[in-house]
Amino acid sequence: MQLRPRTHARTLLAAGTGVAAAGALCLAVTAPATAAAPAQGAAAGSTTVTPAGHAFAAKLTGKATFKAGSVTVTCSASNSTGQVPAAPGNHNDAGPVSSSISAPTYGSCTTSMPGVSATVTTSGAWGVSMQNGSPSTAVMSIPQGGVVVKTSGLATCTVTAAPSGPATVNGSWTNGAPSTLTFSGASVPVTVTGGFGCPTSATASTFGATYAVSDTTDPASQITVTG
């Protein structure tokens, strides 16, 4: 899944950022809960992602919401693209298959309070690692400072995800037509700066999203993760 990272600045939702109640950032998405990634130290089996070399598109399903104190930001659009590694890079005898993905874009976002808007910038080299299993798991990597959210209006805050270095979030993969990549309740480190109403003591957020992943090289095929 080889992609070219890109930068996006727009009024929208960002993966794992916002202004949150009780000093913690919360992102909730209308998606089912996911199983955690395998415990560290557990033996990893073989993984194969197919079709080798095919391009794919990942599209958000449902709606994603940021709960920012009394403000909720709801987004209904998010996209990323990529490419399955060519053989033999699409197979690993003893572990995950890793690739880069484009910085996700988010759009069609609204806020629950008049006079409050959110501008989000995503940037840098993002990635995902797929591990076959029961269930198959996914780990998405966010580059340092890869998401920055700025709110304006009644609350003027800046939230930066992965402020001190790259961060990872755990999720799951489900083969299907299309296959789905799901992250739910994954923790993302953040820093928050700003004035009154900004949770400047917050150090973590939660991230959730479900993406339908389709094969754009051959729409009749499906992107699958097997052993």
Overview of the structural elements:
This protein has strands at 8-10, 25-29, 47-50, 55-60, 64-68, 71-83, 91-92, 97-101, 105-111, 117-122, 126-131, 136-142, 147-152, 157-161, 167-174, 179-194, 204-215, 224-226. It is an all-beta fold and 227 residues long. The chain is elongated. The protein starts with 7 loop residues before the first strand and ends with a strand. Mean pLDDT is 77; it is low at 1-41.
Key structural traits:
five-stranded mixed barrel, 227 residues, three-stranded antiparallel beta sheet, single chain, mainly beta
Mean pLDDT: 77
Distance between the termini: 17 Å
User: For the report, how would you describe the main beta sheet?
Assistant: 5 strands, mixed, barrel
Oligomer: single chain
The secondary structure category is mainly beta
List low-confidence stretches.
1-41
Radius of gyration: 17 Å
DSSP strand content? over 45%
Global outline: elongated
Number of helices: 0
- How do the strands line up in the largest sheet? 2-5-6-4-17
Helix content: under 10%
Order of helices and strands: EEEEEEEEEEEEEEEEEE
User: Count of DSSP E strands?
Assistant: 18
